[in-house]
């Protein structure tokens, strides 16, 4: 079975990233759960699940130990909080960064690297 890296990123990595961003928007920028949800385009209930660790927590420990990754997440959070239009560009930077070091992340979600196909990034 082959799964694309893009699918892994959106299914496993992005929820953890969104959870970090939601937590930072609330704790560092004073957002409410509702306003963070609106900003991220998700429901308030999902934000509540992020905050309680019910969703998006699978990769937290690995992400927290990676200073470079957390720096990019901080950059994304700041861009979102300040209505900076380049948050999408920063997210692409994050995806590319994770793609080059995907082995640890894949193991954390139970996927073997040989099962992953890496289509060329067109962004």
From TrEMBL:
<dbReference type="InterPro" id="IPR010982">
    <property type="entry name" value="Lambda_DNA-bd_dom_sf"/>
</dbReference>
<dbReference type="GO" id="GO:0003677">
    <property type="term" value="F:DNA binding"/>
</dbReference>
<protein>
    <submittedName>
        <fullName>Transcriptional regulator-like protein</fullName>
    </submittedName>
</protein>
<dbReference type="InterPro" id="IPR001387">
    <property type="entry name" value="Cro/C1-type_HTH"/>
</dbReference>
